[in-house]
Specification:
The protein is α/β, with parallel strands linked by helices and 364 residues long. It is built from eleven helices and 14 strands. The strands form three sheets. It has a six-stranded antiparallel beta sheet with strand order 2-1-4-5-6-7, covered by helices on one side. Strand 11, helix 10 and strand 12 form a beta-alpha-beta unit.
């Protein structure tokens, strides 16, 4: 998957931008706050119909404007994401609007790596579930559909539990109707996550070993209640009644990340180990998507060099610039550091862009 051209209108700090990209490594350099990350976030919109950083779409419209538009040229195909104040967000492929945004997921395979990724290690279980669900959904449309349906049923069941509590009326038959929906979709989610982790674990181990530079083991495992979902729901019904929400199910699962002797990296890992885990997760995500889709995803690297020494940076750029990977867009604050990397790798096709307050200049 190659993004040849990115066109922005009123997106974040950009009034207008039109960037022609190469098929290998594209680097955007500039001071903090000039808009480098915003360019990567625009590309993220073209893949997932949403921002990587800000879930409130309207806040990504440039201050003083009433809309934003993002267009990406992928060879002969064009993806467009537009939003006008007070209206629904629209996603189009070759000018044809999707009926639902979910129809577009998987069309543009993409992996984003950013400093925020360490929250996958240190944050709550919902972040790791969201990560796994996002990866699976890019290659498994059936999983995505069941995940959407499960979350809708979960929301309805929780609303019902809250309403029954407020009304002081308990109707187990009505709860059972939503239990059946959760079971129908939940068993597909369980199966999808178990198949995912079986394929993902060896990829993660490979990249963690490469990043850590040692034989230090790292592992990822899926944590869930092994009982059938209906059995879980029936056993937890009284607890759900008083909690006024659903306390069991796939939405409560986690993915356990461990060091040697099954020690959770969240608790026992050093800062360096946690950063290595986060980067290994994202590179394994790339490989998983490639293996299952046959298409090399676009790789976005946002300001990750400050977390690595120069030898590791050089190795990383050589890796992602190789035939194993595809198109890369990265950001950095130090033009000299980036130029030195490219000087060390003269065979690497690249383009260097200078970013300054919403203005983009092609330097090479």
């Amino acid at each position: 998957m190659i993004l040849d051209r990115l066109i922005l209108s009123n997106f974040k700090n950009y009034v207008e931008a039109d960037v022609a990209l190469c098929g290998n490594v594209n680097c955007f350099v500039g001071n903090n706050g000039t808009g480098k990350t915003n360019l990567l976030d625009a590309v993220h919109y073209l893949a997932f119909c949403k921002s990587y950083f800000n879930p409130v779409d309207s806040q990504n419209i440039r201050l003083g404007a009433d809309f934003f538009a993002i267009h990406g040229h992928f060879g002969p195909d064009v993806a467009s994401c537009t939003l006008r104040q007070g209206q629904a967000k629209q996603m189009r492929w070759n000018k044809k609007q999707y009926k639902t945004l979910a129809e577009h997921i998987g069309k543009v395979p993409l992996v984003m790596v950013s400093p925020n990724d360490q929250q996958l290690i240190t944050g709550g279980s919902e972040l790791r579930r969201r990560f796994a669900d996002s990866v699976i959904s890019q290659v498994d449309r059936d999983y995505l559909n069941h995940l959407i349906a499960y979350n809708k049923a979960l929301d309805q069941r929780n609303r019902l539990l809250k309403q029954m509590w407020d009304d002081r009326q308990w109707d187990p038959a009505m709860v059972s109707l939503w239990d059946a929906q959760l079971e129908l979709h939940g068993k597909v989610i369980y199966a999808g996550r178990e198949a995912f982790i079986a394929d993902f674990q060896p990829l993660f181990e490979e990249y963690y070993h490469w990043i850590a530079g040692s034989a230090e083991p790292g592992a990822i495992a899926y944590q869930r209640d092994d009982r059938p979902l209906m059995q879980q729901l029936e056993a937890a019904r009284q607890a759900d009644r008083y909690a006024q929400h659903t306390t069991v199910g796939p939405h409560k699962d986690d993915f356990l990340l461990t060091l040697a002797a099954d020690m959770p990296v969240k608790r026992f890992g050093s800062q360096g180990q946690q950063k290595s885990f986060a980067l290994a997760l994202k590179l394994a995500q790339f490989q998983y998507l490639l293996n299952h889709s046959g298409t090399k995803p676009i790789l976005l690297l946002d300001d990750i060099f400050d977390k690595l020494d120069m030898d590791r940076i050089r190795q990383l750029i050589a890796l992602v610039g190789s035939d194993r990977f595809g198109q890369v867009l990265l950001t950095d604050t130090q033009p000299g550091r980036v130029q030195a990397l490219f000087d060390d790798l003269p065979h690497l096709e690249h383009r260097l862009f200078q970013v300054a307050h919403g203005q983009i200049t092609h330097n090479s």
